[in-house]
Design a protein that fits this description.
Helix content: 25-40%
Number of helices: 3
Shape: globular
Number of strands: 0
Order of helices and strands: HHH
Structural class: mainly alpha
Radius of gyration: 14 Å
Length: 93
């Protein structure tokens, strides 16, 4: 999920504002599967990490390099990015 969907349109008026969970920006088709609790936990965690990294670098969240966020989330054990071609991730063995 792109970080931009957690950045509300008014983020430049209210610095550092992120919206996770049901408040994310997306069309109804994309939003529907993201209403469940585990997905909201993941969004919240990503938003918290992005906010902490941006604050640490004194930059707005939209300017945060995605490579920094990906590295931080991988270090926490998160699966980040699309599965590699031919991988079995997401399938039962």
């Amino acid at each position: 999920m792109p970080l931009g969907c957690l950045v509300p349109a008014r983020a430049y008026e209210v610095k550092g504002l992120l919206a996770a969970g049901r408040k994310l920006s997306g069309d109804p088709r994309a939003h529907s599967p993201l209403r469940e609790v585990p997905e909201r936990w993941v969004m919240g965690r990503g938003a918290r990490v992005a906010a902490a990294l941006a604050a640490g670098e004194s930059i707005p969240v939209p300017a945060l390099p995605m490579s920094s966020l990906y590295a931080a989330r991988r270090a926490q054990g998160a699966i980040v990015g699309p599965p590699a071609p031919g991988s079995r991730r997401g399938r039962s063995a």
